[in-house]
Amino acid sequence: MRLILMGPPGAGKGTQAIFVAEKLGIPHISTGDIFRANVGAGTPLGLEAKRFMDAGEYVPDDVTNAMVRDRLTHADCTPGFLLDGYPRTLDQVGELDSMLTSTPIEKVVELTVDVDEVVGRLVKRALEQGRADDNEDVIRRRLEVYAEQTAPLTAVYGQRGLLVQVDGMGEVADVTARLLAVLSE
What we know:
By secondary structure, this protein is of the alpha/beta class.
């Protein structure tokens, strides 16, 4: 199965991606992990990405796309994969489509959450991790940006009949069960 998992910061995407990928026997592919692996290995793409990351900037689409394209060629992706954090832009959707011409995405799952609950979750996590810059206003802005940037993607995948929404609230095991249920449909 070839999946995309989407959801706002604090929705539990990373946690759910690990459980779902393990249950389905497919790799969990996170752009953050790909960036760190390429930077750690000192690949040409990793060195290019590091310049942007060190400057606190987003890694440009062309670099991100190249890293994802390379990762999807690995043998463990043959039976499928779960993408977490990619695509993030309409251009990336188009690039992903071109990567997967013979084996397209089968489902796009968006975790939906209550904004106030997620803000509380992220504020608590920021305090526990000593991230004073991650205050409620900053977190709410990140959620707004996510909604603005993701709406066009969910619209595209919705029009294609690939988008399913899953309630991301509640206990981790309950969310996992809901995710697995929609994936077995």
